[in-house]
Amino acid sequence: MKTIKKYIPLYIMLLPGFLYLLVNNYLPMFGIIIAFKNMNFAKGLLKSDWVGFANFKYLFTTPDAFRITRNTIGYNAAFIVVGLIVSVTIAILLSEIRSKICVRVYQTVIMLPFMISMVIVSYLAYAFLAGDTGFINGVLKVLHIEKISWYNEPKYWPFILIFINSWKGAGYNSVIYLASILGIDPELYEAASIDGISKMKEIRYITLPLIKPTIITMVLLSIGRIFYSDFGLFYQVPMNSGALIDVTNTIDTYVYRGLMTLGNIGMSSAAGVYQSFVGFILVIIANWITKRYSSENTLF
Amino acid sequence: MAKKGDRGFQILANAIMTVVSVSTVLPFILLIIASFTKDTDITLYGYSFFPKHWSLDAYNYIYKEKDQIFNAYLITVIVTAVGTTIGLMISVLYAYALSKPRFPGKKFFSVFLIITMLFNGGLVPTYFMYTQIFHIKNTIFALIIPSLLMNAFNVILIRSYLQNNIPQALTESAFIDGASEYQIVWKIVFPMAKPIVATIGLFIGLAYWNDWMNGLYYITNAKLFSVQQLLANMMRNIEYLSKNANTNINLSNIANSIPKASVRMAIAVIGILPILIVYPFVQKYFVKGISLGAVKG
To answer: Which range of residues forms the domain containing residue B82?
Structure first.
């Protein structure tokens, strides 16, 4: 009893965070039963009728289920590959550039997009893409090319979204890879330099192999999150344009629209549970692989 | 050190990074220039880096119509200040307790935290819980409490830092000397953990400053709009107009309520201005925090 008493201050310190997690994270977990009910507000959640998997059956008979899964996974896969190439390249260049002032300036600038919200990003994108007044259409006009109605043309959006995602994330991710490169023993480069090895070979045979663990960890972490998408990127940046819905609807935007604009709680909650469960399995698998690969970098 | 081809490589590397940096910063410059462009220029010639007429009209307009915008700014500042302070407090306290070598129930509190990283209930149950049980819709709590206050990732970062940088012997001897756990946290742990507290504080603060999703879910009362939500709503009104441009619905009310292009851009500039000003001074904390997160999640 006396030992417990000694620890009481610790429990008091844990209490606010514990209560917050309980409310914000755990209570909604039990709320997933909404997906298995026919939600009736007059009856309340607990007294609404159970419908089993009816909401899920219905969701998976619509073409939406396939489309939102394809978009969520497809975009994330592209983001992982393109983001990796861009940020590793930037990190290597930054590590090689001698002028420390230049490196600082480059790094400051490329981290800027990380600091702003997707709402601001949507304003920046609009200034370039707006139909009548956008900067790009202005350039096309000068070149006597017919203007493009960007917000009504789905075919361009996979590229636009991948570009914006890389633009926003490159700074952040390159910081991680740069930290990893700066941790490499400088003697390796000195030895290579004495042997007269070219820069390209140095990068290929020293830098890349030695940052491989970081790359693998980062990729696995992203794979663990592949069922989740950035709501702002897919909703706010394309301005919720109906013409683009085929290529911009992801699980997150689907759940939001179902809940807020369509009032289809059954479908919306079923899609949410689908995301939570598959997401859970993926993050467990990704973490398990990471653990086997390097025990230091696991999530838990 | 200098060897054949190295000079060429330096030039190439700098050239690539210059192109990357310039293309990163160009959208921001276009935004700022647009806010100083005469509005009719934007309507007639579109957004341009070299406007025909410069003008302060947008900022004058904001100053004249300051009530709504100042109010949004006030909401953003209050929410950011309160959210960051409380969030930082409860995160550091939770992390400090977990950094203790052993106490009954430590494992439970640790697992309790980690599970939140693996599984979540999703938007629908969260939305119903906050609106139907806690009734936070259209209250300032809706901007502070949901999802942003504390997350497992930050707590784990703080805990690792405390474990590695604050010797157990120090807090233990303070304890033996008669200091209470609370005094230890306040007088020893907080001051010694300054770097990580600054880093995590900036992350939380940035998340609050930039948040618009809690507003999207829970706020419909214009008096509680943050800057971000104000901007998001203006964008949605434009989209609504363009969708219904060919219908007979009387849209003049909505059209009149949307500020002109240059004004919108000026509001966006004001929204990111504090970030642009503070950022160069705190960048090193961000870099440190990001590398820290990569090393040990």
So the answer is: 67-295
